[in-house]
């Protein structure tokens, strides 16, 4: 998170930016933020090129994260950047909700008073599921090269047919996991969920490895070997496959099962191996439950979002394999580049300013600053006042 | 002498702690000290030729004492042991059998001859006595398991090249070890196959109260309809989890599974809490609060519910999610909280995946088994909740009492000739031996060889201080010393009583048991009148039994001459039975659905386990003699009455004589107030009608004393008798005599084994013979019924005379309890019942505690004096000493 903050700060330091339309998603573990920024010169170009309307504004969407436990850093940041009081009065936008920002997630309730007290702004609460869904719909429909499958270590970007998008299953892996059946814009139902999610990975990982951050933990898992601690089918069957039920000897029979029979203390296991086992356990489980729910409603497409994934190869691989395994290839796991910001983006779309026509994302080839960004990068788009 | 020797083995061997497969050698040593049961040798004529019993139906006649198992075609070269070697635990199911001993019991033979009782409808098998035992070891302690097998010689079939059926992953892994250490070959059986056949066996055949639901700590046993049990989803939670769709015998498919299972709980738990065992970890969870580590919906929403999506503030949003935001080390968290959080996470997850899978397959019944559950209340509640929550109440989680033994049982079933397939539910009796309340089948320490070691174990064990919470009396001045009833206060370390674990008994396979054919509706028949599900009721009866215990121990010790050995056994019995009570008080469902009859039988079984075969033998003999002495006077008095008056007097007499009951505290006090005949007459005088329940007029009318009805004579009456002494001699015998006089055949039905002062089928012929000395009616009837041995030899010479009189017969009922469950009666009782058209149940145990509401296909009369105030209030809204004369015509 520190990384993304720094990157975006660098960008924000650019004096030409006009910042507006802040939306926040305050989850149990992380605060996700989306805001719009114009590049003055650029915006002039765009408006001139596109139409005569003067309320059309071209710019970029920026994405940031803070840990919820460090909410004061977040407040300081908002305060220092004056994100909250720039509102949208520039360029002729209405200024009526100057001191209000769109917010979603449980923290929008929990921290409402804090925002009022510290920054003097009110949080306009947007329903969490509704935000997730509109965020996802926005990304899938409007942002090119947003969705991809992950097979054998390869990202394959999928061109989603907008007319054949619904219904789909949206699996948002935050601290916990929500599974939402989406039938259209604003048409959705939370059909399932599980408490075994990103918070579990991070929480258990913190206890088991003393790792200080989620990203460190993920990074560590990359170097781990889960066979050290997981009980594999081969461990039980003396190295042979239990083929009759379709399990190979390397299939995990019991996550952390090997710790049972070994007389080892926690300290004797490599944290990397522990992190790996944990990641696999949780990813696989989410994949399985997601598949079962997709099957239940006959859904072929499953989109995974939420901060847990982080574009982490092994996580995506495990989830993909789980879905593929259980569905026997019938269902596909798909991931979103802006996975962590569905809620925040959904809250942002609640300003009802986002243009319908295609945006471009992360293709700022002309701008060296943008090229350095990772996939959670900025999105170029146009805004206008809808009323 | 050998042929006279009773098989005592069940009394010492019915525990699964250790027990059995008793070396014959060892058994013989013990048996030499045993006195043969009273009455066995009376009228035994040495000159009488032995009948050939080889093809006989009722072999090993005292079924309860020598529970005969039918392992019909079992060849001698296969072992009686099957294993399920899992990643964490080794489960053993083994069969212990006993040599068939033909007991030379003439009463039995004569009855058999008389009624032509043959094999019933069963095939003719060599019948072996035996039991199925369920025990378990931790896989890491496989050497203890090997030692156990070795010491019991379980791996030896009757030849040396034994093959043991085994399943579970370890069957592969440890095959070499078994070969090396025990010299046996492991024959690997498919794991899923075993799980399914184990589950099918348990659900379909074996145990009445096998499946139950679990809601908010409350267990409810579910009667599975054997004809409508498929398909079901079997979720086996071992180290990992398998979900199996079962469509029938041998028809199943593993449809899903998850790697987040018991091994995950234990493995992660071990790393996080330093717990040394699964049980320790589970126990920790009982004191945990998961909200200190889990992120709840309320934590995210600032205490508000997110009701829009149906989540309350206390719903777990993210397991272990709270750890993220707190700056705490692992040591700062309570291990209890961590354990509970883990347990909830994993149970809930399994419940969810199971529900989704069942939904996908359109299956309504979901059974959970495997060692993860262990009857642990919280685990079951969590899984149940998950199923209920996700299915919106449409599906229900069910659990199995033998959950951990599915695989091992299935492996046992895979022996080609195990003979279990043909067993019916009424042929199995589950017994809970002395260790049952503590261990639930888990083996600790070396096997106990003989009774002496068991007693030592009991003594040592109680000294160690396992918590006993039930109302067990403190050391009473009347006990046998040694503080037999002390209530130790602290929990033991080596052995523990898992409060939520369900206990698994030993399955006695008794092929000669049958359903009583005169039950109107065997399917809905419930023997117990008192439902102990009501905690107040339970506590009351526990208190009654506890208070009666010192007296019972005194009697038992006295019955064996009051020797030091008897005292020691008496103390051990008291400890063992107190432990049972404590266990059941804590978890009434621990042994399956609990009724008063089960509790009373448990006490008798417990006595037998410590070699007290007949605690009341002295008393019974004395009272029989005293009653028989006054019988002639009574008969003379009766004979002077008109038939109609006599019928009433006889019924009054039965009710009056029923006051003689050592099982009733109130009555024990009465004994000090006069002689038997004085009490009897005083009691009869008080028998003023109307009784509290009084159908006498209807009965009298049926007996032909009505105004309109033509005289009616029953063909055959079954009289279920109760106590020795006055009860049977002055109450039931005169009634029997009256029926005989009217031309109704009479069958006296008595216990197979002693229970309190109840008269047994072994003792009755002697009593009848004595009574017959002074009464021609009884003498001729007894001769006709083959009860008088010398006479019988004569009648064999003159078969014509034998049929000239209406016979009086004696059969055993197949049980050794003061109550009777008519779903499991001896085959000889079932055989004589077929021609019977009148059933008379007498006494509290058989007519009130059980069968009060039973309906019969023939006329039934239930007679008893209520010698318990609470029962009187509850059952008949009356008072102590009120009488019940309930007559119900055939339904």
Structure description:
- The complex is a heterodimer of chains A (387) and B (891).
- With 387 residues, chain A is α+β, with helices and mostly antiparallel strands.
- Chain A has 2 domains: 2-128 and 340-384, ATPase, nucleotide binding domain (Nucleotidyltransferase, domain 5); 147-196 and 283-336, Nucleotidyltransferase, domain 5, CATH 3.30.420.
- Chain A has 15 helices and 16 strands.
- A 7-stranded mixed beta sheet of chain A has the order 5-4-1-2-3-16-15. A 7-stranded mixed beta sheet of chain A has the order 7-6-14-13-8-9-10, sandwiched between helices. Chain A has a two-stranded antiparallel ribbon with strand order 11-12.
- In chain A, helix 7 crosses helix 14 (342-349) and helix 9 crosses helix 12 (271-296).
- The longest helix of chain A is centred in the last third of the chain and has 26 residues, at 271-296.
- The model of chain A is unreliable at 1-16, 41-54, 86-96 and 356-376 (pLDDT under 50).
- In chain B, helix 9 (278-286) packs across helix 12 (335-361).
- Chain B starts with 8 loop residues before the first helix and ends with a strand.
- Chain B has 3 domains: 9-189 and 414-493 and 502-609, no CATH class; 213-293 and 333-408, 2-Layer Sandwich (Nucleotidyltransferase, domain 5); 617-888, Uncharacterised protein PF01937, DUF89, domain 3 (Rossmann fold, 3-Layer(aba) Sandwich).
- Chain B is α/β, with parallel strands linked by helices and 891 residues long.
- The interface between A and B is large, with 73 and 73 residues.
